[in-house]
Amino acid sequence: MTEKDSNQGHRRFLKGSSVEPYRVGGKFPSTLEPGYGQGTVDFGWLSRVEAGSLVFVMSPSCESCSFDPIRDFSLDFPAFQYAMLIDSGEQAFMELREEHELSFPLIRFDTSKYLLQLGVDQIPWVFVLNRIGQVVGAGVFNHTQHLLHIARPLLDVYYPDNEII
């Protein structure tokens, strides 16, 4: 057994994830091919924001996906820009926007393309981007405390005195 194998031996018991843990530091793609006949979607605007952005990846069929923490977080921290990639049918997509009062861009996204384009195979997922589109935080979340922890790099800069954190 090599040194690398012995350091990764515990991973053989992990189920469901086929990729290495996501490494922050790279840039979020400026374009994505979400599928569903939408063509290429421009995400270049994420590298031209004033404070930073959060990009959520969700599915209404996911039992762990709760939309309430997203809505609450976006209302508590309005300085950031938000977007959501969501794998759903057209009808569920429209109902979600109305039901959860989400006022930021929602893009239907085929999760089979998710792993190939973003390097992650888990949902609910959030990418936290600084103002130039660099990923400074990323991870699985299912409640507001998880979001606060993952978004900490942005919150420390733009909301240093916030009592919620």
Secondary-structure blueprint:
Elements: H1 3-8, E1 31-32, E2 41-42, E3 53-58, H2 68-76, E4 81-86, H3 90-99, E5 106-108, H4 111-118, E6 125-129, E7 135-140, H5 144-150, H6 152-158
Parallel strand pairs: 3-4, 4-5
Antiparallel strand pairs: 1-2, 3-6, 6-7
Helix share, percent = 25-40%
Largest sheet: 5 strands, mixed
CA-atom Rg in angstroms? 16 Å
Average of the residue pLDDT scores: 83
Q: What is the strand tally?
A: 7
The strand order across the widest sheet is 5-4-3-6-7
In short:
28% of the residues lie in helices and 18% in strands. The protein has 6 helices and 7 strands, in the order H-E-E-E-H-E-H-E-H-E-E-H-H. The protein starts with a helix and ends in a 7-residue tail after the last helix.
Walk me through what this model shows:
This protein is an alpha/beta fold and 165 residues long. It contains 6 helices and 7 strands, in the order αβββαβαβαββαα. The chain has helices spanning 3-8, 68-76, 90-99, 111-118, 144-150, 152-158, and strands at 31-32, 41-42, 53-58, 81-86, 106-108, 125-129, 135-140. The chain has a 5-stranded mixed β-sheet, with helices on one face. A two-stranded antiparallel ribbon has the order 1-2. The protein starts with a helix and ends in a 7-residue tail after the last helix. The relative contact order is 0.21. Residues 9-15 have low confidence and may be disordered.
